[in-house]
């Protein structure tokens, strides 16, 4: 009697679920497939997941190549797609476990059609989501990656000769690490190794992101004026000016752009003329903003 009641309850549940789905957009044949061929429906989903995983690997490989060779980062759209793929992979793990736990009820005498139908509907819904991820996996070049400005440029290694050069390098490094010092100047006649010293410092700083968010290198010259210097700095941070912009406008745009970049070290090599930071557009170095200015020059008056 108890078994008969349990069977009747199961049948009633099947009819209720079946009718509910038939009244929706699902077709009767789809519901029947869940009952008659549950393994086939699951296999279709697994095949689609296998293809989705392969697409995921292809996208990740392309992202790796773009990062290594071109310094490009994935777009927000691609990041979201990868996150959704990972979520679906986690859902599949839970679904497989649920299917394994789907034993026959009534001591194996009566297949659990209610749970089979319910799981079948769940598989179908997930299949649609997987197909949508597959449809959205064909990214164009413009939607796959985006150019992210670099932190600076690294120079070929140089060998410092002599204790004097090494001593200057160590003292300069100490000044850069001192929060109370915002502007450092190295002066001396041409050819004594000033540029080699700051190249070593530049490369070392780029390998230690915790110190500066950006290291900006600009090479000056004897005929360099304020406008040219501003444009050189702008080029290094991916900023462009209009031809009609004044010195004040360029300084304002530089200031805003550099503030957005966080802790910046501006290195100006071989500077011949002194400029105020305000006119240049570089933030006044403070403990709070973490910005610093490092220059080399042939004249102590520039420092």
From TrEMBL:
Record bears the keyword Isomerase: no
GO molecular function, one term: ADP binding
Coiled coil: none
Superkingdom assignment: Eukaryota
The UniProt record lists the keyword ATP-binding: yes
Domain NB-ARC residues, every copy: 171-303
Gene3D superfamilies assigned to the protein according to its UniProt record, in alphabetical order: P-loop containing nucleotide triphosphate hydrolases
One GO biological process term: defense response
Record keywords, A-Z: ATP-binding, Nucleotide-binding, Plant defense
PANTHER family, sorted: DISEASE RESISTANCE PROTEIN RPS2-LIKE (PTHR33463:SF209), NB-ARC DOMAIN-CONTAINING PROTEIN-RELATED (PTHR33463)
Protein name: Disease resistance RPS2-like
Organism of derivation: Olea europaea subsp. europaea
């Amino acid at each position: 009697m108890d078994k008969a009641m349990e069977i009747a309850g199961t049948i009633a549940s099947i009819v209720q679920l079946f009718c509910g789905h038939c009244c929706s957009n699902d077709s009767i044949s789809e519901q029947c497939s869940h009952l008659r061929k549950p393994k086939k429906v699951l296999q279709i989903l697994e095949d689609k997941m296998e293809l989705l995983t392969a697409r995921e690997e292809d996208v990740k490989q392309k992202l790796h190549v773009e990062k290594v060779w071109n310094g490009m980062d994935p777009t927000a759209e691609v990041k979201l797609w990868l996150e959704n793929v990972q979520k679906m992979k986690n859902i599949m793990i839970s679904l497989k476990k649920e299917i394994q736990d789907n034993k026959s009820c009534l001591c194996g005498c009566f297949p659990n059609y209610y749970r089979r139908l319910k799981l079948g509907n769940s598989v179908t819904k997930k299949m649609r989501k997987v197909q949508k991820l597959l449809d959205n996996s064909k990214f164009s070049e413009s939607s796959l990656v985006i150019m992210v400005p670099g932190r600076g440029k690294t120079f070929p290694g140089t060998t410092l000769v002599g204790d004097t050069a090494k001593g200057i390098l160590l003292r300069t490094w100490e000044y850069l690490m001192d929060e109370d010092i915002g502007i450092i100047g190295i002066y001396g006649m041409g050819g004594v190794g000033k540029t080699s010293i700051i190249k070593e410092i530049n490369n070392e700083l780029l390998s230690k992101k915790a110190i500066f968010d950006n290291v900006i290198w600009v090479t000056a010259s004897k005929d360099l004026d304020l406008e040219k210097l501003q444009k050189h700095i702008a080029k290094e941070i991916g900023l462009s000016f209009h031809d009609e912009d004044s010195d004040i406008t360029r300084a304002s745009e530089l200031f805003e752009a550099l503030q957005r970049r966080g802790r910046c070290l501006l290195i100006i090599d071989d500077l011949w003329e002194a400029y105020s930071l305000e006119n240049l557009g570089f933030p006044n170095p403070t403990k709070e903003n973490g910005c610093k200015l490092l220059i080399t020059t042939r004249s102590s008056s520039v420092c």
